[in-house]
Structures are given as C-alpha cells and as structure tokens.
Amino acid sequence: MREYGRMSDPRQSAGPAIPGVVWVLAAAALTACAPKPLVEYTTDVPPLILTTTGQAGIEDQRARFREIFCAVDADHGAELPDYRPCEEALVRLADEPPPTGRPVYLGPARSKLHLVGVPGYSWSCIEDWANIEDEIDPHIASLGFGITHIRVSGFSSTENNAREIRDQLVADPDLPDGRSLVFVGHSKGVVDILEAVVSYPEVAERTAAVVSVAGAVGGSVLADDPPKLLVDMFEGVVSDENCERGDGLALESLRPASRRAWLSENELPEGVRYFSLVALPDRQHVSTLLLPSYDVLSQVDPRNDGQLLFYDQVIPRGGLMGYLKADHWAVAAALGRNRSWVMSIFAEKNPFPREVLMEAIVRHVEEQILLSE
Fold first, then answer.
1. Dihedral, CA of residue 128, residue 187, residue 319 and residue 167, to nearest 10
2. Gyration radius from the chain CA atoms
3. Structural domain for 166, as ranges
4. Mean predicted lDDT score pLDDT of the chain
5. Position 220 pLDDT exceeds 90
6. 90-91 and 319-324 as β-strands: parallel, antiparallel, unpaired?
C-alpha cells in the first residue's frame, strides 16, 4: 500500500539518475521548436549598417515638407475628401527640425513638371475598383501639372517592369520632352522606377525626380516567407482572367537580400533628384486586413506600415520628406471610397487626404528643383 507524504527512496527509482548534461541537451532540443526567424541568417548580402539618415547622406527635408503639407491642408484641405488635420496626418519623430518660416507658394504650377504614377505589387489586378486616377488626377491637373499613370505587371520582376516603363514612356506622345518627369512610385513601383532610370538612359535623361511613397526600397521581410493569408488572398485575385501573372518573380524582386544587393551594385543617376515619404502608423491606424502582417513585422520592429519596415522605405542619398500616419495601402488608394461594405469592414482605417498629400509632394519637388537652378 502506498504511503502518502513519505519521501521516496532514490535507490528504489524506476530508472537511473539523469546526469546534468542530459538536462542541458534536453533543453537544447526544446529550443528546436522555436519559431522560424523572420530575417534569415545568410551571408549572401553586402556589408550593411543601421544608421541615421544624416549619417547616410540623406537630406532632412521634413520641416519644409510639413510646412507645405500643412499650408495646403489649411487652405483647401477641408474641401477635399478624407480631410484630416495636418498634425493627425504626419508623424513627428523626436529629432524633426524646426519650421523654416518661409512662405509657401500655393498658386498655379511654376514649371512644366509632369507626374508619372507607378503602382506596386498586384496593383494591375485591383486597379478597376481602386480608381486612383479618378480621385487624384483632376485635382493635380487643376493646379497646372500634368499627370499620367503607367501600368506595369503586378506580379512580375523589377527587370520586366522597368522595361515596361521604358516602352510606355517612349510610346506616349503626350509626355513632355526634356527633364520634366516626376515619377511617383508606391511600394514595388519605386524599385521598378529605380531599375528603369539605372537601366535605360532614355528614361533617366527625361526624369527630374523620383518620389517614393511607402516604397519597398530595401525590400520586405514578408517576401522571404509570405504569410499564408497574403498568398491566399492574391492567389484568389490572380485567378481572375483579366489579371496577368507575368513572369511571377515579383516577390523574388522584393526580398531584402535582392534589393540590398541591387542597391550596392547600382549607382543611381546623379541628374535625378530622389525623395522619400515613409508610412509609419501606430497599430490603431492599421486596417484590419493589414493587421496580421503588421503584427508579423512587429516581431522585427513595430515601426512598420503592415508591409514594410520604416527604415526600408528610404531612397539612399535623397531627401527625406516625412512620415505619414497611415498604413501601406491608405497612402496610395482610396479602398474605402468605393462604398463596398467589405472595404468598410476590412479597410476601415483607409481614409487619408491623398489629394492634399499629392499636391504637397508636387509643390515640394517643384520648390526643391527651382531652388537648385
């Protein structure tokens, strides 16, 4: 009969005592079940450092861009869709310089700049219901600037899309000659543009500036091992007969190792100006559809927009215009304006003053170019 409360005799143990080294090995075995790291260990990368924008040779233009954005917003932002007070649209990091105090010009265009929009990953398959042209184009045209959108393959490599940019640029008789084009790229669209200006001199010589808006300059950690939700969602999209898969190498082009290797091996043309706007929302400003990927990226850094880490959105040796309190999709497309109940539920944080943003971008770029002449 078993006696409760009595210590057992170790000499009567069912098996031999377990040496300490065995416990160490058992603990090591348990760690094999740890989650796979988001950033894989690899030696297939150039030497890298994480430093401040100033030390990286990036010009801090945040104070001036804030003045321009806020002036546009105060003057007529309330008359445009998705109005948001200036301080609620821009994120102020601790080291942002003080205002310049210079007046902001809000008159008609003073130059012949022509905006050329290039969208990001999968855009060619959702553009019919996003309708970015309907919201942005009339406003920019009313200021006296030209605007065009180039359609690239949503699931193809940067090499493929750079060629598409070049071909459409050459074939369009309505685009102005000379160095007057301002490419505005979102997400993967930025790296497609950078590939085009590096690979094709006929593109670079007509380009005044490249603007990155939540651009995948340094790639996305998500491209190394895409979340199943993202894969399933876009697999459903590409099943549409009107959506072309292209060469299918878009995610390969977006891998951080691919982008960093490309940046280390390619010199950006000096005759072109480069500008960056970073999407940097807190979690409360991320739509439901992007929350899973936001949380995944937060394992590396919570300062992300649901698709990209905030430090991977800046073009080297360019101008940093500022940080936007909006997620990756909110800065680019009015998903919530199509009155779809699906979007109202899953893209509920999408409203953002994109007309004000685009006007502030073109006015800032125009001012920077005029000041340098």
1. -70
2. 25
3. 60-372
4. 84
5. yes
6. antiparallel
- Could you read off the pLDDT of 135-149 as tens digits, one per residue? 789 999 999 999 999
Residue type, 231: V
Is 341 part of a structural domain of the chain?
yes
Give 223 or 31, the one with higher predicted confidence. Answer: 223
> Which of helix, strand or coil describes residue 57?
coil
In the chain the beta strands, taken as DSSP E runs, fall at 59-60, 90-91, 114-118, 146-149, 181-187, 207-215, 273-279, 319-324
Asked if pLDDT for residue 102 goes beyond 80, the answer is yes
Q: Are 112 and 144 in contact (CB under 8 A)?
A: no
As a whole number of angstroms, the distance between CA 331 and CA 211 comes to 13
Q: Cα 31 vs. chain centroid, distance in angstroms?
A: 34
- DSSP assignment of 326-363 equals S-TTTTT--GGGG--HHHHHHSTT----HHHHHHHHHH
pLDDT of residue 22: 38
Distance CA 31, CA 37 (A): 13
Is 170 a member of any domain?
A: yes
Q: Kindly state the DSSP code that residue 65 receives in the 8-state scheme.
A: H
- Write the Ramachandran bin of 221: left for phi over 0, alpha for psi from -120 to 50, otherwise beta: alpha
Predicted TM-score (pTM) of this structure: 0.85
The total of other beta-carbon atoms located within 10 Å of residue 128's CB is: 11
* pLDDT of 4 above 60: no
Residue 155 in any domain: the answer is yes
275-326 pLDDT tens trace: 999 999 999 999 998 999 999 999 999 999 999 999 999 999 999 999 999 9
CATH of the domain at 203: 3.40.50.1820
Go through the chain and tell me how many residues it has.
373
> pLDDT-derived band of residue 344, with 50, 70 and 90 as boundaries?
low
Residue 146 lies in a domain: yes
Number of domains in the chain: 1
3-state SS track over 81-110: CCCCCHHHHEECCCCCCCCCCCCCCCCCCC
Assess contact for 104 and 71: CB atoms under 8 A: yes
